[in-house]
Design a protein that fits this description.
This protein is an alpha/beta fold. The protein has two domains: about 130 residues, Aspartate Aminotransferase, domain 1, CATH 3.90.1150; about 260 residues, Type I PLP-dependent aspartate aminotransferase-like (Major domain) (Aspartate Aminotransferase, domain 2), CATH 3.40.640.10. Helix content is about 40%, strand content about 10%. The strands form four sheets. The chain has a seven-stranded mixed beta sheet with strand order 4-10-9-8-7-5-6, sandwiched between helices. Strands 11-12-15-14 form a four-stranded antiparallel beta sheet, covered by helices on one side. Helix 1 runs antiparallel to helix 14 and helix 8 runs parallel beside helix 9.
């Protein structure tokens, strides 16, 4: 976005010129303005069709769906891995759809820990999504190791972002064996430099793994070219595959043949899987990290949702995402950034450099929790992250520039009328 104009007419002009505006017609958005796609993407006609097709196949084929469905369910995880590979810049053999994100962290971290000695350390950061730490700590405990002695967390200087140079320094200072970082910090939206961190890790004989939950489907990657060792992600955010949808993983081909820490029959080599041998023979590629039978109804919507993503292309998605987030940042500065009747104004907690942010913007305010509730009541769905962040995600496939303008305008009116003050600041539950 080259120019910024704060009036709504400008937003309408941007929408008229938007080459991806047509994509919104493929979605059913569950609110007037839905800016929470970094938590759960909405239903698309493509995802719904694929799920309906799978249900029809179950009805008509029963058990024969494993071989006769279109596509056959037996290789569904591999098929979806092939479709996802271009989004993460990987070889098809390096990607598979399987399990849940936390399970994939368990199996991959556990697998690589098995190849190390009892003094091994893993480097994370203090701003990670908590499940990453839960899983890693559990893997240390399973080996009789104290997680406090083996898990090293890089501290944030500002409470929002992680300095990559501090990550590199920590690799030197703590003699770590595995680096595991998010591609995008879930609270602030900072995009880390995966290529740089991987190169720095390998120069120190450190394995490099990443959690791509907040970047897949909205940021392009080149995992194979960067020689990333492993990665995990969910598919219910920017991939719009539905609540609890099946997750995915990547394992660099250099690690093919390594015995998975969590072995299960669906990771067995396909040719002999139904021989029912008591000895596990892992698949020769990333498919080895599948564990239980693929849940077809959690995978089929992803197959459908990928049709639109393939049609548009990740580069076009990323371009619009950056334009939308830049526009949102500019509007917040213009409409919400000044002191308001003696109260604190809003602050952008996301890096302003477009190349350093993912697909959402963190807007900070002392009353963020109550503002988030007031926005939702006004028809703008956002989420709150403690202690003071409202996350707004203008997901590029279904969000318009006018949506962004209207959302900021409603925030402006909430502050003007103090409408947020009637909400409880101590609520609990899902956000």
């Amino acid at each position: 976005m080259d120019e910024f104009d704060a009036d709504r007419a400008s937003a309408e002009r941007l929408d008229r010129d938007d080459p991806l505006a047509w994509c919104a017609e493929r979605f059913t958005v569950p609110a007037e303005i839905y800016l929470d796609g970094n938590s759960l993407g909405p239903l698309s006609a493509d995802a719904e069709r694929a799920l309906d097709d799978a249900i029809d196949e179950w009805r008509e084929l029963g058990v024969r769906g494993w071989t006769d469905a279109d596509p056959p369910w037996f290789r569904y995880g591999e098929r979806l891995g092939d479709r996802l590979a271009p989004l993460v810049g990987a070889r098809e053999s390096e990607v598979v759809v399987a399990n849940a994100t936390t399970v994939n962290i368990h199996t991959l971290i556990g697998t690589f820990l098995d190849g190390l000695d009892d003094g091994s350390k893993i480097l994370v950061n203090e701003l990670d999504f908590p499940t990453d730490h839960y899983a890693i700590r559990a893997q240390f405990r399973q080996r009789g190791l104290d997680p406090d002695d083996h898990l090293v967390a890089v501290e944030s200087v500002d409470g929002r972002t992680i300095d990559e140079e501090r990550v590199v320094a920590a690799m030197d200072d703590h003699d770590v064996d595995i680096l595991f970082m998010p591609s995008v910090l879930y609270r602030s939206g900072q995009l880390l430099d995966i290529e740089y961190l991987t190169r720095a890790a390998h120069e120190r004989d450190v394995l490099a793994g990443f959690d791509l939950a907040h970047s897949i489907g909205v940021v392009s990657h080149d995992l194979s070219e960067w020689e990333v060792d492993f990665a995990v992600w969910c598919s219910y955010k920017y991939l719009n595959a539905g609540p609890g949808a099946i997750a995915g993983l990547y394992v660099n081909q250099n690690h093919f043949g390594t015995m998975p820490a969590l072995a299960g029959w669906w990771g067995h080599e396909k040719a002999t899987q139904f021989d029912m041998n008591p000895t596990f023979t892992p698949a020769a590629d990333a498919g080895a990290y599948q564990i239980g039978t693929i849940p077809i109804f959690s995978a089929a919507p992803l197959d459908g949702a990928l049709d639109l993503i393939d049609e548009v292309g990740i580069d076009a998605i990323r371009e619009k995402s950056l334009d939308l987030t830049s526009y949102l940042v500019a509007l917040v500065d213009d409409r919400l950034g000044n002191e308001i009747d003696g109260a604190d104004g809003c602050t952008i907690g996301t890096p302003r450099d477009p190349g350093r942010r993912g697909g959402h913007v963190a807007i900070e305010h002392p009353d963020a929790e109550r503002i988030a509730q007031a926005l939702t009541e006004s028809g703008v769905v956002v989420d709150f992250r403690p202690p003071n962040v409202v996350r707004m995600c203008p997901s590029p496939l279904y969000t318009s520039y006018a949506d962004v303008w209207d959302a900021v305008e409603r925030w402006r009116k909430i502050l003007d009328t103090a409408a947020h003050e009637r909400f409880d600041a101590d609520r609990s539950g899902v956000s």
